[in-house]
Please model this.
Amino acid sequence: MKIAITGKGGVGKTILASLLSRIFAESGYSVLAIDADPDSNLAATLGFPHPEKITPISEMPDLIEERTGVRPGQAATYFRLNPKVDDLPEKYCQEYNGIRLMVMGRIKKGGSGCYCPENALLQALVTHLLLARDEVVILDMEAGIEHLGRATAKAVDKLIVVVEPSRRSVETAYRIDKLAQDIGLQNIAVVGNKVRSQADREFLISSMPGVEFLGFIAYDQAIVEADLHNLPLVDASQQIITDVRNIFKALLSTAQVQ
Ligand SMILES: Nc1ncnc2c1ncn2[C@@H]1O[C@H](COP(=O)(O)OP(=O)(O)OP(=O)(O)O)[C@@H](O)[C@H]1O
Ligand SMILES: [Mg+2]
Model:
């Protein structure tokens, strides 16, 4: 199963990605988590030791040059758009607690947008991970899916849009839904996070009629505290683990239906 997680900044994408990774791994699945957010913090959230020592793929100029033919920052009229990537997961995955992790890193967007060798390598790598690998892949993305190409989008079994009970978050979800339709991605579902009351839940459901809700995650102050004290979030709150376990079950049952 290939799951991509998106939503407005700060809604809880990384927490959901890390808890789902943990629950899939504990249930015996082989899990590959991909941090595709330029402000990577999935490693820390998963409790990886020394997350600051993990070098993102986008910060490996030698590798980028070797595979695409062009060094980042170098002026070039041509670089390989389909570089070899199938050996990269084994070489550059980090592993901790039964979860394998790849950190993609930040692409400096120049005047030419994303038309650069580092982006070519990352795109090829993400597409490879989604298409050619048979483990559960969980992709923690930035707020948006613009950078998901059509080929990549097709490989995603479920795009989870995380929302919180706020109007802006719901608006972002609508924008993502529209973009997803544009690139042919249909399996979209929503997770409501930071839910404090039945009224919050009803706000989300009534703001997004016709949308599939995979589940809800309660607001828990313990998560905020863990974040403040730099503790791994995966162990911070029993309530949230229970909520994400229910989302995991919902994912499995929708996957079986398809
Ligand atoms: N259920 C929750 N209860 C309480 N606080 C939460 C909850 N979920 C997330 N938070 C708070 O929101 C912060 C952001 O969560 P997280 O990093 O998972 O969001 P994100 O969508 O990945 O953010 P970014 O867009 O910055 O990557 C957490 O550090 C935590 O303080
Ligand atoms: Mg995040």
Remarks:
- The two ends are 12 Å apart (CA to CA).
